[in-house]
Structure formats: C-alpha cells, structure tokens
C-alpha cells in the first residue's frame, strides 16, 4: 500500500467518510478499519496523495489531511510501537511530495493543472494542517535530513522584491515561521548547532524582506498607518516573528555578528512604531486583530532578546528600553485600562528580565568567555542601566511605579474578593497572570546590588506610612495602597530576614500594633498572609520559637478568627457572619496549619493555654459550615484533623451531635456529587482542580473521625470515652465508603442472621496473587473501622452487629479486598473474632460481668476458613500470612463455639485441623533443615489438597496435604539433630516462624486429641519435634505467659513420645496414663525408641528453658506491661482493643507502642479454656506457671516410673540414677522449688 491503487484510494475515501457518520453501525466498523490500516506501511503517503488530488471532494481531502497529520504525529518516530513506525522509504516520499506540492501547487482548490496554468500555494486548502505536518517532520528531519525544504522556502522569499508582501509569500513566511519555531524548541546541543548554521543565510534572506517592509512603514505617516488594512499587519506580524526567531535562536552570540546591533536596533524601532500607532489610535487593538498580535509578538520577542541575547541590547540602550516599558505600563493601566492583561504581562516580563540579567547589574568576570566586543557591550549595558536609575530615583522608585500601576486594587476587585472569599483562597486577594508578572518584576528589582536600597525603602514605609495610615477603609485609596505595600513586603520576605530588617518576632510586633486599630478585613487577610509567608520559609527546617512568641502568634490568629467564632456559634442563617469575616477566618487557616507542622502541639504548652486548641477547632467547624468550595472545605478539615490527631494534647474539644450531623451532611453531599466508583481514584492530579479537591473531601472527613476516635485511647493523658454519636457517625461513614451505602447499612437496627457459610466462588476463583488495587478512601474507612473495634466500649458492641458478616460478604463479592486494604480488613476480622472469643472464654471461665458478644463468628466460620486457605495458597506476602495465622488461631479457639456438628461443620473442622497440620509439618521440616544446613529452607505455603482421601483425624476421611519427602540422614546425624539443635538455625528463618508458634500452642491446648494424632501422622519422630520446639523457645523473650504456653506445647509433645514408648512396649508396667487414650499409627521413618542420652539431652534443655523462664520473669516483671513480641498476638490484640492501640491505622508511634495493664478475666489454670485462656484473660502469670509445673511434675514422675520398670537389654528411657543426676546438676533452685511445690519429691 506504499502509493495505493485507484481502487484502494477509493475504498479509503469511502472509509474516511463512513468514520464521521452518526450511525454507530457504520461509524464503528470504519474506525476499526482505520485503526487496522494504521499498522500497515504506506497509509500516510496515500492519505497525503488524496489531499493533494484536486479532483477529490473537499470533505474527503480534509479528512485525509487530518488523518495524515495524526498518523505522522504518532508514527513518524514511535518508540512505543516500533511496528507502526513509518518506513524510511515512505518518509522520503512524503518529504518529496510536500516539497513538490509547495513548489508546484494546483491552480484551484477544485482541480489539478489545466491548460498549462501555474498554481499558487494560496489555493491549497487546509494550510494549517499542512503546516502542522511540516513542523512534525522538521522535529526529527530538519535541517540535516531535509535540506530541500529550507532551500525551497528561502528561494520563495528571495522572489519577494517589493515592499508589499503578497498572499502567496505570506504563506511561505508563515511556513518558515513554523519551521524555525519548531527548531527553536529543540534543546539538544547538536540541534542548537544546526540552528546556528542556519543563521547567516536566513538573516540575509529574511532581513532583506523585513527591512524593505519596515522602511515602507517608517516612511508612511501616522494617519496612513492607522488606516492600513489588517492584511498588512498580518504580513508584518509573520515577518517580525520570523526575524525575531532568526535573531534569538539562530545565533549563538548575536553581538559578535557584524549586523547584530543594527538589527536589534531596527527591532526596537519597529516596536516604537507599533506603539506610536497604538497611542495615536487606541481602538486599533480591538478593530484589527493582526495589529494586536503584532504588538504582542514584538513585546514577547523583545523579552526573549533580553533573556537570550542580552549584550546586543547595548545597541538599543537598556535605559531607553526600560523607559519605554514603564511608559507603556502607565499607558495601559491609566490611559487605556481595558487593554488585555496578557499584553501588560509581556511588558512586566520585559522589565523583570532587565533586572534579572546579571550582566546588567554587575561587570563581566575577568575570565569570562566573552569576546572583546561582548565585554564592551556588557560594560555598556551596565552603564546604561545605572544612568537610567540615577536619573529616575533608583530601583525603589521603579518598584513604586509598578506597585501603583499593577498591585493596587480598585474598589471592584476588593469587593469581589471579600464577597467571594473562597474564589481567592490560594492567595490573599486572588491572582492573575498580570499580577504574577508584576510580583516577579518587583522581586527582580530587589536583586543585588539594588537589594539594600529597595529593602530599606520598604522598611521605612512600613514603619512610617503603614503605622500612620488610616486602615479602617474610610479612605479607600489609602487602604488599597497600604495593602499593596504589605504585598511588596511579603515578596521581599527572604531578603528582609536575611538582612535582619524584619524577623518573625518583628513582624508579630508590627501586627500587634495594627490589630487594635481595627483594620479593614482586606488588611486583616493580608496580615494573615504575611504570617503565612514568614512561616513558609521556616517550615522545612523551623527555627526554635519561644513560648511567648508562639503564644502571641496564636493570639493574633485567634483574633483574626474571632469574626466567625463568638462564644456561642451562630445557629441560624440570620446570625451568619459576613463574607468579609469569612474571608479573614479562611486566611487565618493557612498560618495556623503551618504552625501545626513546624511547631507541634505536643512540644509547646502555648497551644493548650487559654483553650486555644478548642477555639481553633471551633473555628474550623464553623468555617466548615459556611464554605462551599471543595478546596476551602478540605483546608478546614485538614486543620481540624491536625489539631485532633496530636498524641499528647491535654486539652479536649467536646463535639456535639450537631457537629457529627455536620460531618455526615458534608459526607453525603460529596457522595451525591460522585458516582459510586468515583471514590476510587488511582492517582491524584492537580491538587487544586475541582474534581480532585472533591475527591479529597471524603478522605479528609475520615481522617477527622479517626482523630476523634484516637481520643478514646487510654494511653492519652486525659482519655475520653467513645461517644454513641461518634460511633454512629463512624459506622455510617464506613457503611457508605467501604461497603457502599446502596448495598446495606451498618446502622440497621435489625440484622438478619448470618448464613452458615457464605459462597466463596467469586473471591476464590482466581489463582493469581492479590494485587494492590484498593483505593485510599476504602483503606482509610477500613482503618477507621479497625480503630473503632479497638476502643469500642462493652455496651456499644451491639452496634457492631452485622459488620462482620457484611465485610465477609463484600470480600466474597465481585470486588474483593486486595493489597494493603486486605491487610487492614484482616485486622478488623481478627478484632471482631476476638470479641466473640473473649465473650466465650468468659462464659466458660464463669467470669462476671461477662463482656458482650457479636455472635457472628460461628456464622462466618466456614467463609473465613476458605479465605485463609486461599490466601495461604496464593499470596506470598508475609503481612497476609501473619494475619492469617492469627485468624486461624482464633478459629481454633472458636471450635467449641460452633453449634451441634452437622456434616458441613464437621468438614469445616476437619479442614481447619488439616490446614494447621500442614503448616505444622512445613514448620518442623523447615526448622530442622535450617538447623542442619547453612542456608535455611523457606517454609512453603500449603496448597489446596488434591490427593486421594486418607483416614487421618479421628478416623474421618479428609484430603491430606501433599506428602513431604523425608530427609535422608544417618543415625548419628539424627542424634545430632535431636540432641544438638540450637536456636541459630531457627533464628535464620523467616518471621513467619515466630508468627506460627502461637497458632500451634493454641491448637495443642484446644485440640489435644487431634494434636496427638497429628504427631503420629508426621514423618518426624516426636523427639525431633520436641527438639525443634525447644530450639525455638529461646526466640521468645517475653511475656512469661506465652513462654509458658510454648513449654506446654513441648510438654505435650514429650508426653506423646512417652505414650508412644508404652504403645511399642506393652509388656512394661506403668502406673500413670497422662497421654490421650487414642492409638496413633507408628512413625514410618524413625524408630520411636531412642537412646536414653537423647532423652536426657531433651530433658536437660527443657529444664534450662524452665530456669530461663523463671529468671527472666523475675528480672523483667516490670517490663511485662510494655509491648511484647509479635508472637503474643492474641494478648496484644485484646489489650490493643481495650486500650485503643492503632497498630495499623497510621497513628503516632507513641500511641502504637504503649500498652498498659488491665485487671480482667482470670480463669483457673486447669479449668476449661486451658493455658491459652490464661494467656488471653489474665495479667497474672502465677496460675499458668503453677499449672505448667504441676503437669511437668506428673510427667517426670511417670517418666521416672517407666525408667524403673524397663528391662536393661531394652533400655530406652533414662534410668533413675541418670534422671536424679540430671535434676541435681541442671535444675536450678527455682526450678526445684517449683517442682517440689507441684508434688515432685
């Protein structure tokens, strides 16, 4: 399809016309066909030929050139899709076709060449699209790879031999203008050098045409110039722009060119000519658009000339250029105030560029790379500027002129801001391009070496004019001039502080002198902005501030906010503050927020003195009621959240139900303005755009609610209780934000009974790992819910009913939780499960009063188990796995809570036991391999079972996990593993080892029968398992209760090993049966009988662990109230929920790390619930220790009795003598005392 046949062109034209039809059945197939053709070679060339064919109808030619432009823009150099990139041959043909059509265009728009007529480029339709195509190609090809284009355009300009520019030549001038503009935008050094090579030939060709037209315009009188047709000014504009492009971009150092100074002077004279015409007939700007464009272009390129070719301005005279700019500002702002702002902006930019040029203010350096002509031009420019400033009062007077003309507001502008304060919230009095350019000019005027004089002038005016002026607003002219002076002061903040003229304390003292005079709201907003400017510079690295200065600053901000914060907030619209008062209060938020960041509340007492914190929160709440724009609402919420979220605030802010209703109203207002999925933005663009600010309001409301919930944390100095109003608001927000208000409400008074098992096909259908696609709002709502579950009071637990079930339903829907959101939801599930588990344990231990229960855990038991197994099978991230282990631990403890077992519930119980067994097998195997190899083997996650059902648990038929291959070890190696396994190998393992142990402890205590059966079904001997657990014991530093539970797990394993010994030696007499009465199958890998010295080694290690536990219990008793190891999760979770810890809700670290003591549920050590009930419910570890040593004493007595009755030739267990020697040598006095108190003589 390189050139295309006639039939192919006809079909393409038909497709082009079909692509713009309104009928979708016709349009969509045509669009798809065009997308397919774009990947084929030759499409752009065929489209261009259709455009160049005069016999084609105009609409098809337009469609062809537009699509050709788009294809060339996308595929001339396509790095993202190289297969679509145009081939070199097609590129060459396109460039040749463009040159041909420009050189020999058709004579008319309707046909080709006829009767030998010569065509004109003016007959080419859609010249704008053609120009864009040429510019795009020049981006990569001009000038080195496409010299024919430059030669053609220069040749066409050389044909222009008169002062009048024809329409045809005007087209070529416009095309060359676009080419050079594209060339000037290139920043590569090679491209810049190519541009410099174009300068001499272009300046000769273009300069001749440009000077010829200039001479004609200069010779014409002003009267005739004002009556010229707009076409003349169109040609003048393109010629001026072309000439400026050549001079600014096509010469590296224009001042070194022989005609550089003369050309620059001619440019300035052309600017003066345009200004004279404009002043003679001011209405010409509105009547002739090309004249206006010519003036704007001349000013713009003069700015570029000063910036890029500054030394050549010596030929113009810097002083004359500056005088012209200042006079033009005077003319625009006074004589003709309706001049468009962007025209004035270019004038101000020109003034700013003159004062920002280093060479105009300082002499050139001795080792400068300037030529001799350049050095002379630089010195001359400096002299010219100095002479102008001396003759006109210095730089301060220049600044005063700009200040009076551009920064002094008028009555309309001031009232517009005060009546609509939210429109100018980003700046004290709004902003515009002209105002920004004036501020930059004033800042540049204060550059060295003029900074000292300008700063001194401003300080003198502040201490003189400002303090003596009437700021009440009776004389508006004085008021507006003082406002402009304060604006200038803010612009010079850095220099004022650097020179020691006005420090922050000086500024505060100045404001204190002004406030008692009751200044106009306009001045009050400016003063607030000044404080913000001074604080903005200090925010990254704030300097220390004394309490007195901070207190005075806070009093000033409070005084500014008093306009809308009386002692009793207005409750009716008639009492609402005026818009001017709202503007002042809004302005006070900016410095207040900066103070919160730079000088935190917990470091300065000034914040809480005189109820300042309460006053500022009230100000934010009242403003939140008044403002309507998203940005203003967000700023109010941000300040409120910052005030409430500090960790060590002693001051409290009481919020009423009306305030919470206000939050809910704002929340619902934002919800109505967004679609159901609009609160899931993947990224935030411009923070000041309307849509993005609306998207930020709802997360800000959630942040404020989280800060309020934080106040219920008992670790606070003065904690508050979670109020019912706050709880209801939080649950409503979570219902709308996390679950979607249209689905269901968490605030329903009646909750349907949860189903026995929620379907899991939707959530578990994929085998891919979860990806982090959760939104910030969803995660923030989940964190709020987590915070609520951890501080909710016992009588408020009923309000949470339905949350558990609906969270699980949401996860199993079409939009499951993923990423960090899933981590937070897992924490919420753990907290909600813990509420039911604690209530159940309290009932079994007969503790009164019993805590409330949700009674939802049995209903979601099967669904949670499915979710846990799915995550373990597919998610490799540790945060997921650790939380799943904790959730499984709670599910194990919840087994007795299930109703009478049905077939489904039996399958769920068997699935849970199988899952824990699989984890246990992997844990033991990985631990053994870690202790016997230099590199630990990572513990694999269990996968869904796929094998044939096998009898395993209580004779039931379940699907076991894939069998593990037993390691090949010799007998000596086995003995070393059993007797010599130390903590080093385990410590090299992953954190999941530590997270798994509490699960195994709970499993062994709550399901002792299944645990014994599991030991018999494992490929390792019981002594190997005990050795691994003993080696892991030293990983646990505290608390004592968890270490005691771990030793219980070890003891259960040794009891099972002892019982297995009697199963294999039934003829031996024994008197005690401590192990369960079941009969597991013997190990198929290791013989259950082991040498006595292995038993002695394990018992020695067990006694050492007991001694370590007792010693560290006494030494660290005072530390048991601090945050314990992650392995004591259940106890920590209970304490966190009761005391308000927020481990995953992004609260201050001091809150997360604190954990106090709580007198709570204390069950009997040997009562129902076992040792894990002690770990969960007791702050006293004595009952758990007594239970453990009583059980240990019984085990040792049974072991001693078995050793007495064994035959010498079949000796497996230690003898009585060996056992007694072991106790004498390795049992510490504390251990002996504990065993003696437990009945071991």
From TrEMBL:
Composition-biased stretches (Pro residues): 935-948
PANTHER family the record matches: IMPORTIN-11, IMPORTIN-7, 8, 11
KW Repeat (keyword) present: no
Record's GO cellular component terms: cytosol; nuclear envelope
Name of the protein in question: Importin N-terminal domain-containing protein
Composition skew (Polar residues), residue ranges: 758-769
Main location: nucleus
Pfam families: IBN_N
Compositionally biased region (Low complexity): 1073-1082
Region spans: Disordered: 745-772, 931-975, 1060-1083
InterPro entries in UniProt: ARM-like, ARM-type_fold, Importin-beta_N
Subcellular location: Nucleus
Ranges of compositional bias, category Basic residues: 1060-1072
Molecular-function GO terms, alphabetical: small GTPase binding
Keyword Cell cycle: no
Organism domain of life: Eukaryota
Organism in which the protein naturally occurs: Vitrella brassicaformis (strain CCMP3155)
The entry's keywords: Nucleus, Transport
The Importin N-terminal domain, residue ranges: 30-104
Biological-process GO terms, alphabetical: protein import into nucleus
């Amino acid at each position: 399809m390189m050139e295309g046949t006639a039939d192919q062109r006809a079909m393409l034209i038909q497709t082009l016309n079909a692509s713009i039809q309104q009928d979708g059945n016709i349009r969509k197939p045509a669009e798809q066909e065009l997308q397919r053709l774009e990947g084929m070679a030759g499409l752009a060339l065929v489209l261009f030929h259709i455009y160049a064919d005069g016999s084609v109808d105009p609409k098809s030619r337009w469609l062809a050139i537009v699509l050709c432009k788009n294809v060339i823009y996308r595929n001339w150099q396509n790095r993202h899709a190289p297969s679509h990139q145009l081939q070199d041959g097609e590129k060459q043909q396109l460039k040749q076709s463009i040159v041909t059509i420009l050189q020999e265009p058709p004579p008319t728009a309707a046909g080709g060449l006829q009767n030998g007529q010569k065509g004109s480029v003016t007959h080419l339709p859609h010249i704008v699209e053609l120009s864009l195509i040429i510019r795009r190609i020049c981006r990569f090809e001009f000038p080195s790879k496409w010299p024919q284009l430059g030669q053609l355009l220069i040749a066409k300009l050389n044909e222009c031999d008169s002062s009048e520019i024809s329409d045809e030549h005007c087209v070529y001038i416009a095309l060359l203008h676009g080419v050079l503009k594209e060339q000037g935008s290139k920043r590569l050094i090679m491209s810049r050098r190519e541009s410099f090579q174009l300068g001499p030939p272009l300046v000769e060709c273009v300069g001749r045409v440009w000077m010829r037209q200039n001479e004609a315009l200069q010779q014409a009188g002003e009267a005739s110039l004002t009556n010229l047709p707009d076409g003349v000014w169109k040609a003048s504009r393109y010629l001026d722009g072309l000439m400026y492009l050549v001079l600014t971009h096509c010469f590296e150092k224009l001042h070194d060119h022989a005609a550089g100074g003369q050309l620059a002077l001619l440019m300035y004279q052309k600017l003066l000519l345009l200004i004279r015409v404009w002043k003679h007939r001011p209405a010409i700007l509105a009547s002739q658009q090309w004249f206006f464009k010519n003036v704007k272009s001349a000013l713009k390129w003069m700015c570029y000339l000063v910036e890029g070719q500054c030394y050549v301005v010596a030929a113009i005279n810097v002083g004359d250029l500056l005088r012209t700019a200042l006079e033009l500002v005077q003319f625009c702002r006074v004589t003709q105030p309706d001049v468009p702002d962007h025209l004035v902006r270019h004038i101000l930019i020109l003034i700013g560029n003159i004062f920002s040029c280093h060479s105009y203010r300082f002499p050139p350096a001795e080792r400068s790379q300037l030529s001799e002509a350049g050095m002379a031009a630089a010195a001359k420019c400096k002299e010219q500027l100095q002479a102008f400033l001396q003759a006109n009062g210095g730089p301060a007077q220049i600044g005063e002129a700009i200040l009076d003309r551009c920064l002094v507001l008028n009555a309309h502008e001031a009232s517009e801001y005060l009546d609509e304060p939210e429109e100018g919230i980003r700046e004290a009095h709004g902003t515009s391009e002209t105002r920004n350019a004036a501020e930059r000019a004033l800042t540049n005027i204060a550059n060295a070496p003029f900074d000292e004089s300008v700063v001194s002038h401003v300080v003198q005016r502040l201490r003189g004019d400002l303090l003596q002026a009437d700021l009440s607003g009776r004389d508006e002219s004085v008021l507006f001039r003082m406002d402009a002076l304060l604006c200038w002061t803010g612009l010079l903040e850095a220099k004022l502080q650097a020179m020691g003229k006005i420090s922050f304390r000086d500024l505060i003292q100045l404001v204190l002198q002004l406030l008692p005079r009751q200044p106009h709201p306009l001045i009050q907003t400016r003063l607030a902005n000044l404080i913000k400017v001074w604080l903005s510079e200090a925010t990254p690295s704030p300097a220390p501030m004394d309490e007195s200065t901070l207190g005075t600053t806070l009093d000033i901000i409070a005084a500014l906010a008093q306009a809308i914060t009386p002692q009793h907030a207005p409750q009716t619209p008639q009492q609402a503050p005026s818009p001017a008062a709202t503007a002042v209060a809004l302005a006070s938020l900016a410095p207040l927020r900066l103070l919160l960041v730079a000088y935190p509340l917990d470091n300065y007492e000034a914040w809480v003195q005189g109820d300042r914190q309460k006053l500022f929160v009230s100000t934010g709440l009242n403003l939140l009621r008044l403002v309507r724009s998203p940005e203003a609402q967000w700023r109010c919420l941000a300040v409120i959240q910052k005030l409430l979220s500090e960790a060590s605030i002693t001051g409290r802010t009481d919020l009423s139900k009306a305030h919470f209703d206000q939050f809910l109203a704002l929340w619902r207002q934002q919800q109505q303005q967004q679609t159901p999925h609009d609160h899931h933005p993947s990224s935030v663009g411009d923070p000041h755009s309307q849509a993005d600010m609306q998207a930020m309001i709802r997360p800000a409301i959630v942040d404020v609610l989280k800060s309020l919930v934080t106040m219920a944390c008992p670790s606070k100095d003065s904690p508050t209780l979670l109020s019912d109003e706050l709880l209801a608001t939080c649950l409503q927000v979570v219902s709308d934000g996390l679950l979607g208000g249209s689905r269901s409400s968490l605030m329903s008074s009646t909750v349907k009974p949860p189903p026995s098992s929620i379907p899991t096909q939707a959530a578990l259908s994929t085998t891919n790992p979860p990806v982090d696609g959760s939104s910030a709002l969803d995660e923030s709502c989940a964190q709020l819910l987590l915070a609520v579950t951890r501080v909710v009071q016992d009588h408020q637990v009923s309000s949470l009913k339905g949350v558990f079930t609906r969270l699980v339903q949401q996860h199993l829907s079409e939009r499951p939780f993923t990423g960090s959101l899933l981590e937070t939801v897992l924490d919420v599930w753990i907290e909600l499960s813990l509420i039911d588990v604690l209530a159940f344990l309290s009932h079994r231990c007969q503790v009164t009063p019993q805590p409330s229960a949700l009674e939802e855990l049995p209903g979601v038991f099967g669904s949670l188990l499915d979710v846990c197994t799915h995550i373990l099978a597919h998610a490799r991230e540790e945060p997921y796995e650790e939380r799943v282990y904790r959730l499984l631990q709670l599910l194990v403890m919840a087994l007795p809570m299930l109703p009478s077992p049905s077939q489904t519930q039996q399958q769920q119980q068997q699935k849970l036991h199988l899952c824990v067994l699989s984890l246990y097998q992997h844990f033991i195997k990985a631990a053994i391999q870690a202790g016997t190899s230099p590199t630990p083997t990572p513990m694999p996650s269990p996968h869904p079972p796929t094998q044939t059902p096998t009898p395993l648990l209580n004779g039931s038929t379940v699907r076991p996990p894939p069998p593990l291959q037993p390691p090949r070890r010799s007998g000596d190696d086995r003995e070393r593993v059993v007797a010599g396994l130390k903590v080093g190998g385990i410590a090299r393992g992953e954190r999941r080892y530590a997270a798994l142990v509490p699960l195994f402890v709970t499993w062994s205590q709550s399901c002792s029968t299944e645990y014994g059966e599991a030991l018999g079904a494992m490929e390792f001997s019981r002594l190997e398992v005990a050795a691994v657990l003993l080696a892991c014991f030293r990983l646990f530093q505290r608390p004592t209760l968890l270490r005691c539970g771990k030793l219980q797990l070890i003891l259960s394993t040794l009891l099972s090993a002892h019982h297995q010994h009697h199963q294999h030696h039934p003829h031996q007499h024994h008197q005690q049966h401590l192990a369960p009465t079941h009969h597991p199958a013997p190990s198929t890998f290791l013989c259950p009988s082991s040498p006595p010295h292995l038993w002695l080694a394990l018992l020695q290690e067990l006694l050492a662990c007991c001694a370590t536990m007792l010693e560290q219990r006494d030494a660290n008793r005072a530390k048991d109230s601090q945050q314990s190891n992650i392995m004591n999760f259940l106890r920590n979770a209970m304490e966190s929920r009761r005391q308000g810890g927020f481990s995953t809700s992004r609260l201050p670290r001091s809150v997360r790390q604190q954990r106090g003591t709580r007198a709570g549920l204390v069950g009997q050590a040997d009562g129902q619930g076992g040792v894990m009930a002690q770990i969960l419910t007791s702050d006293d570890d004595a009952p758990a220790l007594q239970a453990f040593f009583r059980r240990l004493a019984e085990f040792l007595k049974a072991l001693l009795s078995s050793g007495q009755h064994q035959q010498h030739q079949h000796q497996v267990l230690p003898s009585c003598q060996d056992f007694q020697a072991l106790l004498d040598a390795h049992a510490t006095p504390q251990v002996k005392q504990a065993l003696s108190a437990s009945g071991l003589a």
